Amino acid sequence: MITTFYMPTRIVAGAGALATVGMLARELKMTRVLVVSDPVISAQPFHADALAALAEAGMAVARFDECGIDARCSHIDAQGERVRREGIDGVVCIGGGSVMCTGKGTAIVATNHKPMRDCTGVGRFDRRALPMIMVPTTAGSGSEVSQWTIVKDEERHLKLLGGGPLSFPDAAILDAVTLRSLPMHVAALPAVDALTHGVEAYVSAIGSALTDAVALEAVRLQYRSLRASINSDDERARQDNLVASCMANVACGNARLGHGHALSLPMEGHLDLPHPIGVGVLLPQVIAFNLAVLPDKVRPLAEALEVDPAGLTRDETIAACAANIRALYADIGFPDRFTPDQVPPGRVREMAERAVPGLYAGIAAATFDHTTVGDRTVIACPSARKMTVRQAQTMLETCLA
Ligand SMILES: [Fe+2]
To answer: Which InterPro entries does its entry note (predicted)?
Structure first.
């Protein structure tokens, strides 16, 4: 199998890194920048510091602070139009995943002159996005080093993914100062998402020694630092979380994502389930399902999840991996089941059927007729073990409260 490993984003990490944003903008030949954020982040002192650094570097600054929980096609299309109208030549995103996806989508539509909806799918646009600098304020999505943007098409109740080599961010700034204002219950959500990125990259059938090495170290660093970063003010642990989240996305950007993301996507679109809850609750099941066909990967992943495999059979080791994930969830206040409000039991089969096109189908998912699939239809997914609709249904049922 031929594999590629591509990571063109410059990563600037460490305490004080945020102060380099102006210098980076200048190096990227930006002169007028759109700073994308949300109402909470834009009120933080570090946001003001970033704006000051951009102004000091000679940037004219326009702002869009209206991002919400999801990156919305309507926001992206409007901001893309604005960028062209106002002659803006760079995008700086300061926020979590939805902020970075909104800014990335804006940078894509601004140069490609078509709506975001038509840019979803794999490589569906042919002009380089505007230069982008990403400043993540949660340790989670990894969008700062990802070519992909995940957007919500509000009209069709769909979550869609779009991107290609032309939409990698140019620079990512990882500075734990941006995590300081984050309440514990908020911080846990993206951190668990990041953990799933590392694991799903590691159990992908299209990974390589390169992606395995990065994914495994991302899981190890994330698992080791999560409790301290969420339950205390440990700045070192938070910086480790930021770096681990970034690494997980470097891995999954190349090895792609697996069953947790494929099964969560329709629940996010049709049931409004938050992304980290969807993928995080599924994670212990996803680990067990895939490790069953990856005997050589059981021990390394177990050790990354702080399981001591000595004296355990392979099946016991796999079970211990899932148990350690659940123990972590208990300690950081993350759920390990879907409530009936989140995923009504009567809609589980439908959600399993709607997962069939997979994460990377783009707008083609909009016309997919889920009623045509049967128990043995396989879900499009690069994970090591193929999963049928029936198996997906069982997995979802196991995750119900
Ligand atoms: Fe994710």
So the answer is: ADH_Fe/GldA, ADH_Fe_C, Alcohol_dehydrogenase_Fe
User: How close is the Cα of 152 to the center of ligand 1, in Å?
Assistant: 14
6 alpha carbon to ligand 1 midpoint, in Å?
19
Do both 161 and 207 map to the same domain?
no
Half-sphere exposure of 145 (CA within 13 A, CB side): 29
The pLDDT tens digits of the residues spanning 101-110 come to: 999 999 999 9
Query: How many C-beta atoms surround the C-beta of residue 62 within 10 A?
Result: 17
Same-domain status, 210 and 274: yes
Q: Are residues 286 and 390 in the same domain?
A: yes
Residue numbers of the domain that contains 69: 10-179
261 CA distance to ligand 1 middle (Å): 6
State in Å: Cα 97 to ligand 1 middle.
9
Q: How far is the CA of 79 from the centre of ligand 1 (A)?
A: 24
| Ligand 1 midpoint to CA 96 (Å) | 12
- Tell me, in angstroms, the distance from the centre of ligand 1 to residue 70's CA: 13
Looking at the fold, whether 232 and 356 belong to one and the same domain comes out as yes
Alpha-carbon dihedral sign for residues 318, 324, 329, 335: positive
Predicted confidence at residue 159, as pLDDT, reads 82
Domain contains 4? no
Q: What are phi and psi of 219, to 5 degrees?
A: -65, -45
Ligand 1 center to residue 143 CA distance, Å? 9
Task: List, edge to edge, every strand of the sheet that includes 158-163.
Answer: 71-72, 148-153, 158-163, 121-122
User: pLDDT at position 185, please?
Assistant: 75
Q: What's the CATH code of the domain at 365?
A: 1.20.1090.10
Q: Considering its fold, how many domains does the chain have in total?
A: 2
Per the prediction, the chain carries an average pLDDT of 95
Q: pLDDT tens-digit profile of 47-99?
A: 999 999 999 999 999 999 999 988 999 999 999 999 999 999 999 999 999 99
